[in-house]
Amino acid sequence: MNLESPTVTVNKTAQDVFDFLTKVENFEQLMPESKQKFEKINDSRFLFQLKGMPELVLEQKDSTAPNKVVLGGASEKLPFTLTADIDDTEGGKSTTKLTFDGQFNAMMAMMIKNPIQNFINTLSENISKI
């Protein structure tokens, strides 16, 4: 299952956005209002829970400064990645697009597609406000 957020413009350079996204504690600022729990586990891993959803642990899997940050599920039960592609534009601004890629059976994919799409759209919208 592959889902994408809209591309958003950020009033910061690609390097600034990259630096923000590589500090896992900053993801708390990006979470939807339905966030019930957020906990930094270490410098590359955090746990969060949204209302009505199980706790999830995300960890930084890869990064390429200043254009890409890849987070992934820390559990083998939910194999997925969340990639932020960041590009510089004019005037000290940049664009960011989030891509979710997960390996789920058809039933699971049908159940989680809309909540995940809403989640990455909210993250993307909140990135535009940093």
From TrEMBL:
Highest taxon of source: Bacteria
InterPro entries attached to this UniProt entry: START-like_dom_sf (IPR023393)
Name of the protein this chain belongs to: SRPBCC family protein
Organism this protein belongs to: Aquimarina algicola
